[in-house]
Amino acid sequence: MLRYVFSRPERLKVYHTRTFNEIEIIGLNSIGIVAILSVFIGAVISMQTAANMTSPLLPKYTIGYITRSSTILEFSPTIISLILAGKVGSNIASEIGTMKVTEQIDALEIMGVNSLSFLILPKTIAAMFFFPFLIIFSMGLSLVGGYVAVTATGLSSHEEYVFGIRSFFLVSDITYALFKTVCFAFIIVTVSSFFGYYTKGGALDVGKSSTQAVVWSSICILLTNFILTQLILL
Amino acid sequence: MIEVKNVNKSFGDNHVLKDFNAAFEPGRVNLIIGQSGSGKSVLTKCIVGLMEIDGGQILFDGNDFSKMNRLERKEIRKEIGMLFQGSALFDSLTVEENIMFPLTMFTKMSKKEMLDRANFCLDRVNLEGRNKLYPAECSGGMQKRIAIARAIAMNPKYLFCDEPNSGLDPSTSIVIDNLIKEITYEYNMTTIVITHDMNSVIEIGDSIVFVYGGRSWWYGNKEDIIKTDNPEINDFVYASQFMKNLKNKLKQEGM
Predict the structure, then answer these.
(1) Does ipTM surpass 0.85 in this model?
(2) Structural domain boundaries in chain A
(3) B89 has a chain A CB within 8 A of its CB
């Protein structure tokens, strides 16, 4: 399947337009859900950290430090990607699955269009290009969420939290997170497209494909996350 | 001209097409008729390459389609227009964009030229001015006509219609049948129509292949099919009691 997806496009201009449309559909339209989740994830991490810091020997800036590290290394790239696997993955599988059962994909093939490339390549490029921006946005909002939560509840001061999030900062953590995100974006689009493209039957089967797409995308993301953590961080 | 020679196709133990032979000539409406499950749709999908055949040959103007590689098939497919049973219009595109789609993908026409061509095709199917509608906003009959407009946008040499009248009322069916007949004669296309509809058979059947048990069981035209004594054909054509009575009456009257 991937060989045909990445074969030479028939008309580059059409693919450009489709890629920009996909950036809007699977990227820009996900900003809202990513923003809400990120703020609350950041807020909960910071409050959980503060609640578990029972030792008086631990400095208060640890809250900011742990919030930043957890958010950048795991919560933003992995949890947001799992959420996107649900939102974007089911959308892709049901869109392509519906096209399959209503013979729209056959219509593309009859016209001489490489349907795999036409449908999947723009989505793959759009996701791999735009998801890193979504994750950077998510990281920022998580830190803001954490800040609001701990300062509003008096668990930490402004100075301590900001000092914490700036302490022991490594740029490689961001690089690692974004590299993971690009891998996850590829997984979400290709796994979901696979289930959509090979749908057989009717509306019920489109629903099944959509569910399978989300389940398998999530499993692949978790496995890839485990492998990448082993390979890169350890 | 499209020739199907000794084509076989199986799905596991289910042998759907058995040494199937047929020839479909240009400038004629060639009908493929037969009972549900007889292999008509599989045959069409094999001819256009949506399914691979197990054996035999499919020749487009003498060129063996079944032996062509992906790129060679692509060139043939640019000359094929297809009307699907469910129309298969792209939901996210307007009527105009649907018709312009193959032109956008495969020609270097300017936007204006494509628009002119789309308008011409829409006029041809009597849907002028419906450019900006979405498929969901159109009736079943309109969707079929839009699909015909899209199918003829690239001036195809071959036109395939998979049950063009399914789900349509009798008068709209006649409109679609006449449209298929007119464009076939006008552009000298090789048109293949799969149908169950006996009105279509009588209306547009220049050449008819009856598929029975996966074989090309009977050939003829619309006049022959009325007169034939082939029992399998008669069971199919005169399936209802009304049609059987009609046939007996015609026989008694010596017609």
Answers:
(1) no
(2) 11-233
(3) yes
